């Protein structure tokens, strides 16, 4: 399985954990809620769905609206197929959510993982955020070293493009710092009190650790130095 198809499977399972959907709904949610999938077509989505069905993680249901009795198909027209997550699919998705390896830090996979942070435990969120920050700090060092070596040979426009890429990465690192500090503050607030009274479990998936500010735009880092 390619990394890109793995990201798509993860996102499909995550969306279907929220509610059953048919293919058109899924593609719309992938495009609008998870913009990283704008380039995916039905020709990519449906083979993914078939694979997930074959693995036992989804089931196909013919009929009308979700959670309603199937409607009789009109003559000459196929009923819509609704995809529903199975118990095995939910278990598999939860296993994927718990993973914090290097793939979780890469650009597209991180975007998909972040979209489901509301369903992810606090400790896992912290490891993914810290891993992403470390990844970008390494990238930033490479970009600075490359710029120092080549700046005398670059024209003004190429130099400005490289500076723009660096600023994008720096901006995401600052954003990650805010998120990490907010997660830490939320975790500290939920530690057991001195008198031993029970506090909320620090591994809950609640998203209360997000910083509150007006700028909710997604950072767009450049990765020119990884080629």
Automatic annotation (TrEMBL):
Residues 182-193 have a biased composition (Basic and acidic residues). Residues 182-227 are annotated as: Disordered. Residues 12-95 form the Transcription regulator PadR N-terminal domain. InterPro entries: Metal_resp_DNA-bind_regulator, Tscrpt_reg_PadR_N, WH-like_DNA-bd_sf, WH_DNA-bd_sf. Residues 126-167 form a coiled coil. Pfam families: PadR. The keyword Cell inner membrane does not apply. Keywords: Coiled coil. The keyword Coiled coil applies. This is PadR family transcriptional regulator. It comes from Streptomyces vastus.
């Amino acid at each position: 399985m390619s990394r890109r198809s793995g990201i798509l499977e993860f996102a499909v399972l995550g969306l279907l954990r929220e509610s059953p959907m048919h293919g058109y709904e899924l593609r719309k949610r992938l495009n609008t809620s998870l913009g990283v999938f704008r380039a995916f077509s039905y020709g990519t989505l449906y083979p993914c769905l078939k694979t997930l069905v074959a693995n036992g993680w989804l089931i196909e249901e013919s009929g009308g609206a979700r959670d309603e009795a199937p409607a009789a198909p009109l003559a000459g027209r196929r009923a819509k197929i609704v995809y529903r997550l199975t118990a095995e699919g939910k278990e598999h998705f939860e296993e994927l959510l718990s993973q914090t390896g290097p793939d979780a830090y890469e650009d597209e996979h991180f975007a998909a993982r972040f979209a489901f942070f509301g369903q992810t435990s606090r400790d896992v969120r912290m490891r993914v955020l810290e891993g992403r920050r470390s990844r970008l700090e390494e990238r930033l060092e490479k970009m600075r070293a490359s710029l120092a070596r080549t700046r005398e040979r670059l024209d003004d426009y190429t130099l400005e493009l490289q500076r723009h890429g660096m600023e994008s990465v720096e901006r995401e690192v600052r954003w990650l710092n805010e998120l990490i500090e907010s997660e830490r503050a939320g975790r500290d607030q939920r530690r057991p009190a001195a008198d031993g009274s029970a506090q909320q479990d620090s591994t809950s998936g609640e998203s209360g650790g997000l910083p509150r500010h007006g700028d909710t735009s997604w950072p767009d880092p450049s990765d020119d130095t990884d080629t």
